[in-house]
Structures are given as C-alpha cells and as structure tokens.
Amino acid sequence: MRRLNLSVFSLMTAGLMAIAVVSPASAADVSNTGLAETNVSVGPETSGVPCGECVPGAGGNTIGLPWPLFAIAQGTTMTISTWFEATSYSGPCTAGIILKQGNVVIDSATYPFPGGCNAGYLYGVFFTVPAPATTGLTTVIGTVTGGTSKSGADTLINIQ
C-alpha cells in the first residue's frame, strides 16, 4: 500500500477528469464536513504504477494509474486506487476499501494516515489485493473517515 499527497489546486482539473472519464464511481459525502471521497478505480497490478509525477510530457502534476477494468479474472491481483480531498478538514483520517458481493463483505482494508490529513490537499491510497474467488458483480467502495466526517465512492467490477 502506498500513499500520495498533492496540492488540490494543481490537481483539480485532473481529478475532475478522472472522476468523469476513468471511473463510473458515485460519491457521497455523508457529513459534508470537509472530507470528500472523489474516485475509486480497479486495475490490474502493474509494475511502476500507481505513481505521482510520472507521466512524461504531460506538464503540471500528474498521476499514473493502471488502466481501469470493469471485468477481472478471479485469482488475479488487482490494484484499487482510492482518492479523496480534504477540503476544509484537518486532523486524523483513515482511508479504506470495502469489497462486497450482494450484501456480503468479502474483503476490506484501511490505512490510517500517520500525520493525519490537512485541508487543501488531495490524497491517494493504493491497495493491492487478490481478486475475489467468487465470480459475479462486486461493489468496490473507497472510503475516508476523520472526526465526524465520512465519505465514500463506489464502482462495480465483474469477477470472471
């Protein structure tokens, strides 16, 4: 698991494009108190990515992600990228993922940020996990919590 902090201002356009183009994620800021999960995507485990400032010739701040997939073979290894923005919240925070098939949670993981979160930053956490053994639609949920703030975004993958 790795993390990446980048200035919100410099990544606003890239983040909005990632939400609109890369992932069919839906987001919900439950408490509306300064933490907003913006994106969750699933791709194949790929050497060298995710990474920051690694897209040659792109200019500005960049993020390199594995190509998002909507179907993945059971037993393969996948990278789940989850991004959130600390708009006005500063303090302890934890990013996480939840994988569900129907109402059954089949996997989950969390990453508490050692230094907490600071308002005005975009944060990324990458989890490398095995694809579920059971085939079918799987909901992948990216979460962030801090204080009374809670937010999440989700996407679907089909385990084949």
Can you describe this structure?
The protein is mostly beta strands. It has a single domain (2-159), classed as Immunoglobulin-like. 9% of the residues lie in helices and 53% in strands. Strands 2, 6, 8, 9, 11 and 12 form a six-stranded mixed sheet that branches. The protein has a four-stranded antiparallel sheet with strand order 1-10-7-3, with helices on one face. β8 and β9 (104-112) form a beta hairpin. The longest helix has 15 residues, at 8-22. It is globular. The two termini are 25 Å apart. The model is unreliable at 1-31 (pLDDT under 50).
Q: Looking at the chains present, what oligomeric state does this protein adopt?
A: single chain
Distance between the termini: 25 Å
- The percent range for strand residues is over 45%
Percent helix among the residues? under 10%
Determine the number of helices (DSSP H or I, runs of at least 4 residues): 1
**Succession of helices and strands:** EHEEEEEEEEEEE
Low-confidence stretches: 1-31
CATH class call: Mainly Beta
Query: Structural class per helix/strand content?
Result: mainly beta
Largest sheet: 6 strands, mixed
- What integer is the average pLDDT? 80
What is the CATH topology descriptor? Immunoglobulin-like
